[in-house]
């Protein structure tokens, strides 16, 4: 299992988290509050936590071979909702 985490600088983390969860709720299993969200993606669960200055994004991937595609999907979708401040900065690191 590969775990990737990024701290994305934004004061709108809660808004983006909720928009992304609502967007994907028609396609994937989703559970969210204004502070936390989980989306069951094909490559593994995506978890988000909204902090005052950042949006914490966590990917629990079934395999390392999925890392590039998973990061691309998540960052592209978040950038779409954050169009006013996009592109967002993702400092991906492996845990």
Explain what the structure shows.
The protein has 95 residues and is an alpha+beta fold. A hairpin with a 3-residue loop joins β2 (29-32) and β3. The chain has one domain: TATA-Binding Protein. The chain is 28% helix and 37% strand. It has a six-stranded antiparallel beta sheet with strand order 2-3-4-5-1-6, covered by helices on one side. The model has no long low-confidence stretch (mean pLDDT 96).
Model regions low in confidence, pLDDT < 50 over at least 5 residues: none
Radius of gyration: 12 Å
**Class from secondary-structure proportions:** alpha+beta
CATH topology: TATA-Binding Protein
> With helices defined by DSSP (H or I, 4 residues minimum), what is the helix count?
2
Helix content: 25-40%
Using the coordinates above, name the CATH class: Alpha Beta
The strand order across the widest sheet is 2-3-4-5-1-6
- Main pleated sheet: 6 strands, antiparallel
Q: Per DSSP, what share of the residues sits in E-state strands of 2 or more residues?
A: 35-45%
**Could you say what the CATH architecture is?**
2-Layer Sandwich
**For the residues shown, what is the average pLDDT?**
96
Order of helices and strands: EHEEEEHE
What is the approximate shape?
A: globular
CATH superfamily: Alpha-D-phosphohexomutase, C-terminal domain
Total strand segments: 6
Number of domains: 1
Distance between the termini: 10 Å
Helices and strands in order, then pairings?
Blueprint (H helix, E strand, L loop, with lengths): L1 E8 L3 H12 L4 E4 L3 E6 L2 E7 L3 E8 L5 H15 L11 E2 L1
Antiparallel strand pairs: 1-5, 1-6, 2-3, 3-4, 4-5
